[in-house]
Structure formats: C-alpha cells, structure tokens
C-alpha cells in the first residue's frame, strides 16, 4: 500500500574517493523490463511478509508456544525494523552500490526467513523477524534506487513507478491468502521457509538482469544514529505492549522513558548534522510534518486492522487459517479497486480532501466493526469500507508531503515519509493489540467463552483504531487549510 518515491541516486559500486564520478547516463528508452521483473518480485516478497504471518499467529502461539505479547512482536518487529532502517538502506546502497546492496539485503532476508521457519522457540523467531526487517530495508531501498537508475526515460520510469506502487496492495492481499494456505496445508513454518528458494532464484536472476551502475561518491553510513533510530521506536513499542499487563507495570513505563530519551538524542544529534541520515529539518514544513503523521495513522489502521481481523475470524468464528485469509480478501480487493481511480479522484477533489474522505471511510468502518463484531458478515463489510479508505489515504499523503519539498531533497524526503509509514504500522499493532488483549483478559475473568472474549477483544482493538481515524480527520482538516482546494496532484498521469 505504500508508494515509494525516491529520487535517483548516482551510485552503485563503491568508490575510493569522494569526487564526483562520470556524468549521468543518457535516458535509455530501450531498457529491458527484465530488471523490473526481478526487482519487483523481490519487493513483492518484502511486502507480502508484512501480512503473511497474520493468519498464522494462532498456530504459532500453539506450536512454540507464544503469548499475546510475543505474537504482537512477531508482526511489529518486522515492520518496525523495516521502516526505521529504510533510510540506512538507502545510504548503504549509496555507499556500496545498488546491485551489491540488493543482493546483500536479499541474502540477509533469505537467511532470516530460514531462521524464522526453523525457530525452536519464541526468542529465535523474534530474532529472525528483526533480521528480516533489516534485510527488507536494505533490499527495498536498493531495489527502488536501481529501478530509477535503469529506467531513465520519463515514459518507462512512470510505468515502473506505477508498477512499484501497486506491489504494496498486491503483496498485502496475497500475503493473507498465501499465509492461510501454507499454514493449513504445510504448517506455519512454511510461511517463512517459502522465502528461501524465492530469494535464491531472485538473486541468481538479478545477477543476469540488473546491471552494475556507475558510482559517484561515498557517504558516511551513520550507523550509531541508525541504531538509535531503531531502538527508540522499539522501546516505545515494548512499553506500549507491556501496558497490557496493567497501567502500573514498571517495565512498560521504563520502555516508554527509554524511547523518549533515545528519540530526543536522535533529534539533537541530527538537527544540526551535515548530511544527516534523518532529514529532520523537513518536519519544519507543516504540510510535510502533517503528511508524515497522516501516513503513520493510515499504516496503524492498515497493519493493526489486519492483525486484529486475522485473529478475529479464527478465534471468534472458528475459521481455519486459509478461510480466515479468504475472509480478508474483500478488504484487499476493495483497496485495489479504489487505487485504480485514486489519481482521477485526487484531480477532482484535491489530495487533502481525498485524504479527508479516506479518514472518514476508515472511521466509519472501524465504528461499524466496534458495534457489529459479533457478526462475521458485518465485520467483513466493515473491513471492505476500511480497505477502500486505505489507498485514498496513502497516495494523497505522499503527494502532499513531496509537493512542498525542494527537488534536491526529494529522495531523502520520500525516505522519511516511508519511515513514518512503516513505523506507524508497528505502533498500530502495539496499541490495538494491547487494547484487544486487555479486553479479552477482562472478558475471560467475567466468565465469557473464548469466542466471546475474541469478539470483545476485536471490538476494543478497533475502537483504538477508530481513535487513529479521528486523529486522521484532524490531520486532514489541517491539510485542507494549508493547501488550496485546487492544488494540482503532482503524480496524476
């Protein structure tokens, strides 16, 4: 569901000097689409893994075993690490080269997938998911950079970026179905192990289809800042998840305090840095800052809602994993259908007003699900409404956020937007999952059955996501005031 717009960088292989390299290559209108096929397949795999595990969570919980908090981390650790390291992934591609970084990220992703699939216990699974997220960040950033370098002519680049943007919707939709199918037919471990042969074949194909690209300069990696940037959101997620043990849990507030300290340190260190990894100065623009906030809220509803819904259909209605995946298919299809008409709608309404409609749809769907969680059909209709609001939220926010940025900073600006997008998904799982777990525990203490507790948990979790949608409405209202209704949609074909 994410659109990645990163300005083309001019590096690919490591250089031994900081001096500029050869001039940029001329547009190549005859570039083969084989490179796009390989890079797109890798990105599809990355996106698929953000949802493939959702319907497998009950099976994982029974097999390892794993508690509610560990299951939340199984989802959240991947999207959190992926999002917080995307900017570092772009920097790595800049320093070590696009194809080389792509292959390294692919190798790490495949090895981490094997660790997840073979994990004997919960700690090994979570370690594998964190490593998967790190590999995905390097792989995804390098892949998109390579796409932009290979397809230089305006027409082919527009087609390539449109295909790239659509991979988010396709990956998320396929993920829940494939996860259910693999879990039902072969077991939950194959939801991870299937990545290993795919990664190997993709790597071999990349050696043939993706060309090495001329380097321009080397840049500092900023590894300490990257680690702090990952540690801050991780500590915050830990604190939020531990709150399900009670608001007086010391570990929860310790995690939140550590997060505040780490994020404050990152802000101080990066605010005045030369060539910063995190371009925090961009947040001084109200429209850009609000776009970042909106992307976090939209991702929280998407990832958090998928997490809740996958468990809901299995626990509240006794569906097997594959059936639960199919039950989520209409949500993905509604997103895909709306994504097709988003450019036209944005041209008529303006990006900010379209985002307002998206937030309203997400709120309406969440409210319906809060009230009607006891009925599977009502829940399915609510999820379709939420799904329809997702692309009409993500796409306008990327357009608004990037429209007020200088062309020279379009790459880092897009990377920071993506960072807020992905980390928002992790917080969505942490908040909605924690509220749901507390509601389920309360229901069980009062004598409710497991199915009744699952209904109560889903209702409470979507109430938290409804709060995210209300906040999104406020963001949309502010963006409407800051942008003219006739603002052109920069990415409209």
From TrEMBL:
Entry GO MF terms: transmembrane transporter activity
Pfam families: MFS_1
Alphabetized InterPro entries for the sequence: MFS (IPR011701), MFS_dom (IPR020846), MFS_trans_sf (IPR036259), Sugar_transporter_CS (IPR005829)
Record carries keyword Cell inner membrane: no
The name this protein goes by in its record: MFS transporter
Organism: Thermopolyspora flexuosa
GO cellular component, as recorded: plasma membrane
Membrane topology field: Multi-pass membrane protein
Tagged with keyword Transport: yes
Superkingdom of source: Bacteria
Transmembrane segment boundaries: 35-57, 69-90, 102-121, 133-151, 163-182, 188-209, 221-241, 247-268, 288-310, 322-342, 354-373, 379-400, 420-441, 461-482
Entry keyword set: Cell membrane, Membrane, Transmembrane, Transmembrane helix, Transport
Subcellular location: Cell membrane
Major facilitator superfamily (MFS) profile domain: residues covered: 35-484
Region annotation Disordered: where it falls in the sequence: 1-29
């Amino acid at each position: 569901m994410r659109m990645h717009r990163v300005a083309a960088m001019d590096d690919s292989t490591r250089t031994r000097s900081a001096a500029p390299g050869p001039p940029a290559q001329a547009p190549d209108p005859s570039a083969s689409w084989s490179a796009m096929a390989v890079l797109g397949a890798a990105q599809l795999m990355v996106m698929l893994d953000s949802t493939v595990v959702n319907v497998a969570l009950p099976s994982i919980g029974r097999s390892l075993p794993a508690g509610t908090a560990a299951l939340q981390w199984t989802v959240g650790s991947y999207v959190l690490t992926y999002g917080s390291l995307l900017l570092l992934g772009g920097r790595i591609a800049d320093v070590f080269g696009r194809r080389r970084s792509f292959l390294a990220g692919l190798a790490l992703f495949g090895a981490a997938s094997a660790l997840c699939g073979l994990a004997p216990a919960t700690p090994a699974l979570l370690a594998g998911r964190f490593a998967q997220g790190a590999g995905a960040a390097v792989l995804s950033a390098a892949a998109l950079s390579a796409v932009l370098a290979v397809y230089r002519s305006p027409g082919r680049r527009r087609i390539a970026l449109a295909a790239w943007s659509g991979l988010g919707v396709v990956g998320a939709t396929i993920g829940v179905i494939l996860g259910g199918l693999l879990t039902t037919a072969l077991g939950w471990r194959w939801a991870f192990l299937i990545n290993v042969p795919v990664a190997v074949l993709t790597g071999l194909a990349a050696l043939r289809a993706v060309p090495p690209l001329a380097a321009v300069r080397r840049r500092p990696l900023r590894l300490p800042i990257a680690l702090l940037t990952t540690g801050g959101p991780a500590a915050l997620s830990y604190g939020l998840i531990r709150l399900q043990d009670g608001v007086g849990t010391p570990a929860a507030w310790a995690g939140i305090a550590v997060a505040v300290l780490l994020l404050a340190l990152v802000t101080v260190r990066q605010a005045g840095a030369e060539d910063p990894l995190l371009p925090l100065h961009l947040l001084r623009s109200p429209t850009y800052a609000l776009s970042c906030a909106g992307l976090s809220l939209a991702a929280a509803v998407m990832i958090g809602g998928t997490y809740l819904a996958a468990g809901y259909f299995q626990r509240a209605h006794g569906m097997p994993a594959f059936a639960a995946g199919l039950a989520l298919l209409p949500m993905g299809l509604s997103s895909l259908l709306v994504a097709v008409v988003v450019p036209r709608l944005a041209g008529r309404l303006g990006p900010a007003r379209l985002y307002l409609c998206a937030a309203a749809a997400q709120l309406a769907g969440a409210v319906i699900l809060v009230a009607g969680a006891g009925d599977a059909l009502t829940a399915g209709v609510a999820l379709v409404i939420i799904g329809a609001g997702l692309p009409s939220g993500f796409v306008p926010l990327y357009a608004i956020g990037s429209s007020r940025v200088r062309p020279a900073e379009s790459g880092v600006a897009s990377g920071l937007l993506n960072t807020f997008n992905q980390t928002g998904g992790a917080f969505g799982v942490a908040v909605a999952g924690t509220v749901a777990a507390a509601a389920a525990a309360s229901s069980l203490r009062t004598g409710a059955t497991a199915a009744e507790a699952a209904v109560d948990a889903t209702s409470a979790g979507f109430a938290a996501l409804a709060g995210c949608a209300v906040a999104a409405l406020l963001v949309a209202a502010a963006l409407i005031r800051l942008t003219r209704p006739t603002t052109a949609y920069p990415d409209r074909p």
